[in-house]
Amino acid sequence: MEEKYTENPEIITRVDVVQSKMMIEISLIDVEKEDINLMMDEKGFFLSAPTESGTDYVAAVSFLRSVKPSEAKAVLGEGYLKVEVPFKDPLENYIKVVVE
Predict the structure, then answer these.
(1) What is the DSSP string of 31-92?
(2) Which of 88, 87, 11, 16 lies closest to 47, judged by CA?
């Protein structure tokens, strides 16, 4: 039976202040697109991705600012999973109260 190893992938995050979004690059060498499990909510993400060589990449990351996970876009290319997700407006769910 082949032995499995778990490894944390290299993760680089950048913030685009002008477009109000976060860009995340995750190093996933030897991983097929269909094997990537990326789950995100407004506070962070969880990733698991098995490789053909027996290593499982696993990561859980918390964000300092809320994001809009339903608008996240992820593309795998050249050994990196590139994710872009816009930040949530901190006042987005607030309702203006009319003062009489």
Answers:
(1) --GGG-EEEEETTEEEEEEE-TTSEEEEEEEE-SS-B-GGG-EEEEETTEEEEEEEBPPTTT
(2) 11
pTM over 0.90: no
Work out the pLDDT band at 93, boundaries 50, 70, 90: confident
Q: What does CATH list as the number for 5-86?
A: 2.60.40.790
pLDDT digits (tens, 9 = 90+) for 46-71: 999 999 888 899 999 999 999 999 99
Do residues 41 and 62 touch, judged by C-beta distance below 8 A? no
Summarize pLDDT for 4-28 with one digit per residue, the tens.
789 999 999 999 988 899 999 999 9
User: Residue 89 and residue 29: Cα distance in Å, rounded?
Assistant: 34
Domain boundaries defined on the chain:
5-86
- Category of 52 on φ-ψ map: left (φ > 0), alpha (ψ -120 to 50) or beta: alpha
